[in-house]
Amino acid sequence: MPVPKKRTSKSKSRRTKMLWKKKAFKKIPKCFSNFYYLMFESNFSPSGLRKRKNRKRNKKISS
User: Which GO terms describe its cellular component (predicted)?
Assistant: First the structure.
């Protein structure tokens, strides 16, 4: 049985889309700037990040 061409083209397009997304993330530091800021604030400790997240949640609940 011959392999349908549509299937292969779909998988290729998906792959290229993923690659383009990765490239965009590498090129644009905006996406990571906030994440790095949080990391530096908490001195590279995940507990600090968790605390900050909880604070935000508490504010939302209280307000």
Answer: ribosome
Arithmetic mean of pLDDT, 22-48: 54
Whole-model pTM above 0.85?
Answer: no
- In angstroms, the CA 45 to CA 52 distance is 11
Question: Domain segments of the chain: what residues?
Answer: 7-62
Angstrom distance (rounded) from CA 35 to CA 41: 10
Letter string b/e over residues 20-47, b meaning 16 or more CB atoms within 10 A of that residue's CB: eeeeeeeeeeeeeeeeeeeeeeeeeeee
